[in-house]
Design goal:
Layout (H helix, E strand, L loop, with lengths): L1 H10 L12 H10 L13 H10 L5 H7 L3 H11 L3 H12 L16 H8 L6 H7 L3 H11 L3 H13 L7 H9 L5 H5 L3 H15 L8 H16 L1
Helix pairs in contact: 8-10, 10-11, 13-14
Length: about 230
Amino acid sequence: MEVLFTTCIIMDKNYSINLSNFSLDKLRKTIQKQELIPSHKILLEEIEDRFKKLGSLGIKNLGELSQALKDKKGIEAFSIRSKIPVDYLVILRRHTNQYVAKPVNLKEFPGINYNHIEQLEKLNTKNSKHLFEKTQTADDIKQLAQQTGILTTNLEEIIKLANLVRIWGVGAVFARIMYNSGVDTIEKFATSDVEKSYKAFVKTNKEGNYSSVHFSLKDIEFCVDFAKELIVD
C-alpha cells in the first residue's frame, strides 16, 4: 500500500490543475456538462457565441482568462472589448476561480486524532496544501513521521485526505466519505467506475451520517473528470 500511495504523490506534483493546460474549449464543454449552482446558470446563456468572442480576443486557456478577469477594472475593460455583459464576466470569474484548489485546514477533516493535528501544526503544517508540499516523496513522509512522532500509517491517512480535497467539489467531509469507501487517492478516483463509486459514497455517507448535503451521479462524474486533470498535470 505504501508503494502505491507514494507513487501517486510523485505523479501529482501540482496542488492545483495547470490552468494554462485547460483550454477555453474544454472550459466551455465543462460548464455545459456540469450541474451548475443556480447563480452560475447564467454562464449557459449564449455560451457558444460568448466563448467564440473570448477566443477571438486571444484567450486560449483558463490561465489567460483568469488573468484577463483578475479584477473589477479588468472585467469592465474586457466587457467593452468583447461586448460580453459585465455580470456574465463576473460570474465567469467566480466560476473559474473554483478551478484553483483552496487549502483546507486539517482540523476540518473528520476522524483525525487532534494530537496528530497539533504535532503537525508545530511544524507549521496547518492545512492540506502545507501537508501536500511537505510530502512529495516517501522520504518526505518518513521524515515528517519522525519529526511529529505520528505513526506512518496514521500520517498517510491524513495525507490522503488532504490530497483528495484538491479535487473540485471535494471538501473535508466528502474526502472522509471517499476515503472510508476505499477510494483513497486521486488516481483511484480518476480511474474508478463512476456509478460504483457513487453507490459506495452514498452507502458510506448513510452509514456514517457524515453529511446531509445531496450529491448526484452527475456530480461524481464531474469530479472524476476533474481528478483526471490533476493526474495529467
